[in-house]
Structure formats: structure tokens, C-alpha cells
Here is the input.
Amino acid sequence: MNKVEIGRRHREAREQILKMSVSAYAAAVGVKDVTVYSWESGRTAVPHAVMAQLASTYGVSLPWLLSGKEPRTEAPVVLRGARRSDRSRGIKIPMLALGVSAGVPTASDDTIEREIDLAEMLLEHPDSTYFIRVVGDSMTDAGISDGDTLIVDCAVTPKPGQVVIAKVFGELTVKRYVMRDGQPVLRAENRRYRDITVTPDMDFAIVGVVRSCIKSF
Here is the structure.
């Protein structure tokens, strides 16, 4: 990960999008002024949790922060633009207490089992979670297709076997993270694509773990 470039974009977000001074921003994210200066100069890396907070709270594009190739404020975040207190409320939808083989069931008081809060069901860390749309077919054997929407959590530590969003040489990709002979590998779930073996000299970082895949029919 290029700390200098990310630090520059971090400063751009703070000054031009958030319109905050270093002191005001440091207080908002809970660090000292010198830490912000260190991030923005590229001496130390901006933590993933801070970048996730910029996306979830202020609508700054996380892909743009990481690669600079997306619009600055078009982040695919959950409930972008809502107040933090609103994010935990979620959306409640009736769960019907019956199956259906054909036709459409009619909801009535005696068929509604309970109401489901989608935020509680899908999001473990709402403030560190964002949506991202899939482009390409390298993960079709894992049930992830072109046009699907992924729910990505960047507050958890990735483990081998999980599907992750990774940044490789400035490009975001979705792959399965595995260890092979002690070496990290980004494995495609489509035989048409080669695996990516991660080497020490690569510009590589895991951005988040895919928790759910939303499909449109």
C-alpha cells in the first residue's frame, strides 16, 4: 500500500470534503494532531478503521482513498448520508411464517412470524461496513457473479479461507484468501483465472472481508 499517496488523499478529504482543521479532525477521530500529520505526510499508514469511519460517517469513497480511481464522494457505503444514530435502527421487514411453492402469499396478522431488522441480520460492524458492486466473473464458482452487491466488513481480521476485498498494485479485487506453503494467495473461484501469489515486493493489502452477497433476479 502506498502510504504517501493515501496520506495525500486523506489530507484532500479532510481539507476539501470535511473542511476540518487538523486539530478538529484529530479530535473527531480520537487521535493527536501529530498522528494526523504523520498519516498525511506518509510517514505512517492511515489505519483501515479510520478510512472506514471516513466512508461511513462522511461519505468519503473508500476505493478512492485506497486507489484514487473512484469519485471522491461516491462511496458504496451503507446508508450513506444518514446520521450515525440512524444507522443502527436498520429496516424492519415482516417474516412470513409459511413457505410458498407457487403463487404469492398474502400477509396477515396470523402469518407474520416476526419482524427482521436487516442491519442486525447482515451487519456486525455497521460503522465499518460498506457495499461494493462486483465487476467480472472470477468468483462465479463461489456464487458471486457480475453485478452482485457485496457487504464488506473492514473491522475484522481476515482469516484463510474467507472471501476478501484486496488491493493489488492499486486495483481492488475480490478473491478467496488462502495460505499455500506458508505464502498468501488470492484464489479465483473460476478455472479461467489464475491465482495471485502474494510476494513481499507487491503493493498488496486486504481491505475487508466479504460477509454477504446480495443478488438481483
Summary: Residues 3-18 form the longest helix (16 residues). The radius of gyration is 20 Å. Helices lie at 3-18, 22-29, 33-41, 48-58, 62-67, 84-87, 118-122.
